[in-house]
């Protein structure tokens, strides 16, 4: 039988993950979880030693100002506290994915970057050179997309590696589909 | 250890394949082969029993008229002969992929449809419901794309399943990158 790259290095899959946009729910977004579960169930399957997962969470500094509406900055320390809070949220998010991988026996790495999600993801793809990038997508219609932007569309166009976009299933979509 | 969908059905990956556009070379295009090899090496790896490959070749009837420039149609039989020739070409193409799968031990199916490639692929995705569609792409710049169209971009936007586009590597690109 011909070789199927059995002896080659593991397949490295980067997954872009973000926090839920639902207020007061500091966990992974529905579309991030969909992207992760799809990768496990459809690609990795039982071949846990053939893959390595790379989780990238991009924190958007002051995304829309809402988070800072009730914040009062009176000293440099206040800014440091805010930054620390952001960082803690990021690692909390990554902990979920890393723990799941650990339970299943899939090698992984996870890290947080700050900046514009789509730009940072493409930059990290260039740096880390994964075999595949998996990103979630809310599956919004064109009208809704105008307002929320689509990181996934940008990545498909600009990232220097194969990219697959995983939409949430219909039953996972919240009442307001812009929520995630 | 948690389950990773080990017991679930196989992952069904559809691969859109086409003939080389290089005149007098009736074999699979470079980008089709790239898409296929990527799927084997990066996704299926050693887990040959976990996947089923579905090869779809869409024959474009009279794509640009060039094929018919030297043909003379004098009777209904001439048209039947031309159609039979098209069909033979299509099955010859699929034979390459099916043989490779057979050698490796990956279950597969392959079929030919006629029509507009992008429309037919999306239609077949709707009908067959694969877990993933893999399509090749010549990796042309925006200027060149205007003239040759991109089936892959259409599929990414419109097909009802996750889609991944595999570009040819730089060393596989022929002298004229529009050739494939």
From TrEMBL, chains A, B:
<dbReference type="InterPro" id="IPR044187">
    <property type="entry name" value="At3g01520-like_plant"/>
</dbReference>
<dbReference type="InterPro" id="IPR006015">
    <property type="entry name" value="Universal_stress_UspA"/>
</dbReference>
<dbReference type="InterPro" id="IPR014729">
    <property type="entry name" value="Rossmann-like_a/b/a_fold"/>
</dbReference>
<dbReference type="GO" id="GO:0016208">
    <property type="term" value="F:AMP binding"/>
</dbReference>
<protein>
    <recommendedName>
        <fullName>UspA domain-containing protein</fullName>
    </recommendedName>
</protein>
<dbReference type="InterPro" id="IPR006016">
    <property type="entry name" value="UspA"/>
</dbReference>
<dbReference type="Pfam" id="PF00582">
    <property type="entry name" value="Usp"/>
</dbReference>
<feature type="domain" description="UspA">
    <location>
        <begin position="29"/>
        <end position="167"/>
    </location>
</feature>
């Amino acid at each position: 039988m011909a070789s199927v790259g059995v002896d080659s290095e593991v397949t490295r899959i980067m997954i872009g993950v973000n926090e839920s946009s639902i207020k007061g729910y500091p966990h992974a977004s529905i579309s991030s979880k969909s992207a992760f579960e799809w990768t496990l169930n459809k690609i990795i399957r039982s071949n846990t030693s053939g893959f390595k997962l790379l989780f990238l969470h991009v924190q958007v500094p002051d995304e829309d100002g809402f988070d800072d509406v009730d914040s009062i900055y009176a000293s440099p320390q206040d800014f440091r506290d805010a930054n620390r809070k952001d960082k803690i949220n990021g690692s909390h998010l990554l902990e979920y994915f890393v723990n799941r991988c650990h339970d299943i026996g899939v090698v992984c790495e996870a890290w947080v970057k700050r900046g514009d999600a789509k730009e940072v993801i493409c930059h990290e793809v260039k740096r880390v050179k994964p075999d595949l990038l998996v990103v979630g997508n809310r599956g919004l219609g064109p009208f809704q997309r105008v307002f929320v932007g689509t990181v996934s569309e940008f990545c498909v166009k600009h990232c220097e590696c194969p990219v697959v976009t995983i939409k949430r299933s219909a039953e996972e979509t919240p009442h307001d589909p812009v929520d995630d």
